[in-house]
Structure formats: C-alpha cells, structure tokens
C-alpha cells in the first residue's frame, strides 16, 4: 500500500525535527498544503506555526518561498533549519551581491527547500522575474505569508507591502499559499481573507490560549521602577523582555537595572543600527539577558526560552499586548506576563489618540481598543478568560471557570462599593472647573493645604476635604478606574485635565452604582531568590546536570556563532537532565532531538554527561 502524505509528514517530523507527534491541527494543515490547497492558519505564538509551512515545502517538489517581515527572524529560522539538515537560505539586505547571487543560484538549481524573503524584496520586478523562472522549472513548492495580520490597516502592525502580495496568486494560481498569524481578531481575519484573496482557503483557527503563561497586572506605584525590580528578583538569571512606552524611558530603566546588577540592554529605533543589531544578537545568543525595549523590538523575536515579558507602561491594544506577551515561553515552559499601569498611562494614551492626525474612524477604533485593554486590566475575573474573549474564544477553565494561572484566579481581588467615592470625585472635577489633573483634585478631596489650592481658592469649595476617609493612594485608584470606565476623560487641549463625560451624570444623580477594586497595600520586599521557572521541581542532581548542559550548549553556540537555543531548547536540556541518558538510543527518545542533531551532538553530549557522574 502506498504511503500517504500524512505518513511522510510524520516521518519528517520525527526524523528531522525530533518531535514524536503533531500538535492540534498541525497534521491537517500540513496535509492540506502539501496536497496543493490554500490555508489560513491562526495559531498562538509557540504553537508550531513554522512547521505548518516548513513540512509541506519539504514534502512538495521545489522550494517554499516564505514572506517574512524581519531580517532577524529570517536569520534565526535559517540557522535553526540548517542545524536540522534542512536546505534553507534567505535573501535580504544583509547579504552582499555575491552571497545573494549564490542563494539565487542554489534556488534556481533546486538546491533549496525553503527561501525566506522580505515582502519589499519579493515584490521587486527582478525578484518576481526570478520567481517566474523558478516556476517554469517546477521549483516553487508553495508561498507562505508569515505575520499575515500585517495586511490589515486596522491592525497594530500594518505594512502596506503586504497588500500587494495578491500578485503571487494572480501570476501563479497553481501554487498553494498558506497565510499565518498569531494575532488577529475577527475583523482582521476577514481583512486577511479579502486582501490576500483567500476566499477558497481552508481556515484553521487554533485556541489562542497559552496555558504556560501566568498573567499578572499591578497598579503602578510612582514610576514603577521598584515594582519592576521586585518582579525581576523572582526571575534571576532568566532571559526576558521589558517593554516601555518611550525611548527615554527605555534608556532610564535599562540604566537602573544595570545599576541594580541586572544584565540589561536597551533597544529602540533611536539607537544606531549597529547598536540595535549587536544588542539583539547578544539577547538571542546569551542566557539571562533582559532586553528593555520599545515595541520596535517586535516581530522576529524567536527566542524560545524567554521566561517573562514585563510591561512597565500600558500598551495600546489587546492585540499588541497579546503578541508582545506571546514572546514568553515559546518552548512551552512556564513563563510570566507582568503589566504595571497607572492613571497617567491611561490619560497619556487617550490624549495621544485625540491629538493624532488619524481619521475620526481610526481614532474611534483606537479608543475602543484601548478601552478593551483597560477592561482587561481592571477586570476582577479570570485574566485569560477576558484576553481570549477579545479574540472571540469562549474559555472555560477547570478551576471554577477560571484558568488557575493568573493573579485574579490565584488571589481573587476584593471589591468595594465605590459609588459615593465616585460621586465625590466627579463633583470635585466639576466644581473645580474641569481644568485640573488627578494630583490637584486629590489634594482638594483630602484637604491638603498647597500653594495651588490657595491660589485658586479651592479650599472654599464644597468638595474641600470631603474625601479624608481615603488616602492619596486609594484616590488615585478611584480616578484611574473612573477614567478606565469612561466616566472621566483627559482634555488634550488643557494639558490632560480631567473632565466629565456624558456617562458621568447617571453616577452624580445616584442612578448608577459602581464597584471598584481594592488598591493593594504598597509593599517593599527584600531581596529573595527563587529558582528559575524552567528549573522548578528538578532535584539537586538533575539541577546540576541542567546547569552543566547549559554551559556546554553556550560553548558550542559560541563556537558556531549561533544563538544557544538553535543548538537545543532549554526544555530539551531539562528533559536530558531529568532522564540522564547513558547511550545514544536513550538520548534519541528525548523530544526535540532529531536524527541530524543526534548525529552531530550525541557523542560530545554523552561524554559531557558521563564526566558529571
């Protein structure tokens, strides 16, 4: 009986990639594309999207052309594939003329399985001519469009070049296409289908859940620097990303972390290109580096052992937040997504939208996206439930409906009836002329005698000192939650002064009651050490082997000038440390070790393990 496409695909998965079985709908996607069908794949980061086009490209005649938006992503993918014995290359601006010519020759002569190329280069006339020549020779296996959400003008990563990729289908309709993304709500999915002419494509929508990521939101205490350091003390020696809103803030935080003994580097678009490239390369290749960055450090971060992503400022949307946090725990190991935000974040982002030059329609969309993220932050229910709900996924966890792996599930927040406090706050905004920010309003409510209060005669207002039952920290929480719920808004024309909205009247008239989250007490923790999340539950001997294996891997990676995870993922090293294989057969049973890596590293790795005993 002839072997099926599925059988051949499973053989490749096991022998080349070292995985014993497919996950989720991977098998169905691979079979669909390998047999010539189009597909739209929505799968969370770390869910195995790359295999969905890599395997069909290897199963079909010719070379798979992969549209990828970033050079760093291409280089990492190519290096990883070459380690596995897959014939892969990229065409991008980092290659000189001779190197690019060599890649083109290999492609046209049938010596490549996968070729990664940026959309701008692919759409150039010369490159399209080369695609035509390769097609005439039967050398095009498929077109893979990675990060397909970039086609949407309403998305957070819009790239106009992506809209021109329909030319691939128009010129070569017989070549199967697969579009892939980890971040697309329902409107973005519809636009991907429309803009890329994928009406006949089969859609594969996996769960957006990343169960290995623990979500946590804290309310910012001042600038949040001390809170960040407290958080990082639980992740000593681990790789992670810290996102900040501005370039200036990135540099300040990176400097503070270095002073505190953290191995941190900055990354933003204002740094020289060579500095950005060097910092990114160091982050990808070394263990335990913390990258402090703006969202310029975005797509293409394929490092699997990122154990945490921290946001010290509020992102702009749920999609952006989801994609950025999705860079943690790509290897399936435990990871953490930590976000701190405060009233200032909300006010500044709303003012930024209002002052922008976008159309009214675009501003309305951005406000809605920000409101959705605020709802997530202020939610007292399961974080995962709220996050997945944005993508149209109903989540019902095993822990009473919650996930059991977010702050609200692990430590259910307390709430209080904030109706009267809200009425006091809104009245204070109104009676002071809707001209002041939260700091001054809190001074009025708490009866604080300041020069500004006396200057404007606000100690004579009826709202003077009526809020002494709450302290300044609690009032900041009240104002933050009033802004988050749309009962107050920032006036961009008056230095972000707070003013009432159309919804405020119902609260002032006593027609609407409000429930607020209790503000947690400010805490200062002493320096504590917690073992790495990936090291959890390892006994002393296995832990020793794990650290020794990481040192061995680092030396091998340095010798080859490739990221350490290209050699083996942390999860693979952990499995080796636990199993302590004594021969090649036992080592071959470890997930993530394919035939090529077994051949290449087994002897050295087993010798290293033997010396540890």
UniProtKB/TrEMBL annotation:
Domain HRDC: 539-613
Secretion signal span: none
The Helicase ATP-binding domain, residue ranges: 30-202
One BP term from GO: DNA repair
Transmembrane parts of this sequence: none
Family in the record: Belongs to the helicase family. RecQ subfamily.
Protein name: DNA helicase RecQ
Gene source species: Marilutibacter aestuarii
């Amino acid at each position: 009986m002839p072997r099926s496409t599925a059988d051949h695909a499973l053989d490749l998965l096991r022998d080349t990639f070292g995985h014993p079985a497919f996950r989720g709908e991977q098998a169905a996607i691979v079979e669909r594309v390998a047999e010539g069908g189009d597909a739209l794949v929505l799968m969370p980061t770390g869910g195995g999207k790359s295999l969905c086009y890599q395997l069909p490209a290897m199963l079909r005649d010719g070379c798979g052309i992969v549209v990828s938006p970033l050079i760093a992503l291409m280089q990492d993918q190519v290096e990883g594939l070459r380690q596995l014995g897959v014939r892969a290359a990229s065409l991008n601006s980092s290659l000189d003329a001779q190197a690019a010519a060599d890649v083109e020759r290999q492609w046209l002569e049938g010596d490549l399985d996968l070729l990664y190329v940026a959309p701008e280069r692919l759409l150039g006339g010369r490159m399209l001519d080369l695609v035509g020549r390769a097609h005439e020779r039967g050398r095009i296996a498929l077109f893979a469009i990675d990060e397909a959400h970039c086609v949407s003008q309403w998305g957070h990563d819009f790239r106009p070049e992506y809209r021109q990729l329909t030319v691939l289908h128009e010129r070569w309709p017989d070549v199967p296409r697969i579009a892939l993304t980890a971040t697309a709500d329902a409107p973005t999915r519809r636009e991907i289908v429309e803009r890329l002419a994928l009406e006949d494509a089969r859609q594969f929508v996996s769960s957006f859940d990343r169960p290995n990521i623990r979500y946590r939101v804290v309310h910012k205490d001042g600038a949040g620097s001390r809170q960040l350091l407290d958080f990082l003390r639980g992740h000593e020696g681990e790789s992670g990303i810290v996102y900040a809103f501005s370039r200036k803030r990135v540099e300040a935080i990176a400097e503070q972390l270095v002073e505190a003994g953290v191995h941190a580097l900055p990354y933003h678009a204002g740094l020289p290109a060579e500095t950005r490239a060097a910092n990114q390369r160091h982050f990808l290749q070394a263990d335990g580096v913390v990258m402090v960055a703006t969202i310029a450090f975005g797509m293409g971060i394929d490092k699997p052992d990122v154990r945490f992503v921290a946001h010290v400022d509020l992102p702009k949307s749920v999609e952006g937040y989801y994609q950025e946090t999705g860079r943690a725990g790509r290897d399936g190991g435990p990871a953490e997504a930590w976000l701190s935000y405060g009233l200032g974040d909300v006010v500044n982002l709303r003012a930024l939208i209002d002052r922008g030059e976008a159309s009214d329609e675009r501003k309305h969309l951005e406000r809605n996206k920000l409101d959705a993220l605020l709802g997530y932050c202020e939610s007292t229910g399961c974080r995962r439930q709220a996050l997945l709900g944005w993508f149209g996924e109903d989540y019902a966890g095993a822990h009473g409906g919650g996930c059991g792996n977010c702050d609200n599930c692990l430590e259910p927040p307390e709430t209080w009836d904030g109706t009267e406090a809200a009425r006091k706050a809104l009245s204070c905004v109104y009676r002071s002329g809707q001209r002041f920010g939260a700091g001054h309003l809190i001074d009025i409510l708490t009866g604080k005698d300041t020069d500004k209060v006396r200057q404007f005669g606000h100690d004579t207002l009826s709202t003077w000192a009526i809020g002494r039952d709450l302290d300044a920290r609690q009032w900041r929480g009240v104002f933050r939650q009033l802004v988050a719920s749309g009962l107050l808004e920032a006036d961009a024309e008056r230095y972000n002064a707070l003013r009432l909205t159309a919804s405020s009247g119902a609260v002032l008239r006593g027609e609407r009651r409000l429930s607020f989250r209790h503000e947690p007490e400010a805490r200062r923790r002493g320096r504590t050490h917690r073992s790495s999340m990936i090291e959890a539950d390892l006994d002393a001997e296995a832990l020793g082997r794990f650290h020794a294996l990481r040192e061995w891997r680092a030396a091998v990676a340095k010798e080859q000038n490739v990221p350490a995870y290209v050699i083996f993922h942390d999860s693979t090293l952990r499995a080796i440390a636990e199993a302590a294989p004594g021969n090649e057969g036992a080592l071959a049973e470890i997930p993530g070790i394919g035939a090529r890596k077994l051949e290449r590293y087994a002897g050295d790795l087993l010798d290293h393990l033997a010396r540890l005993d």
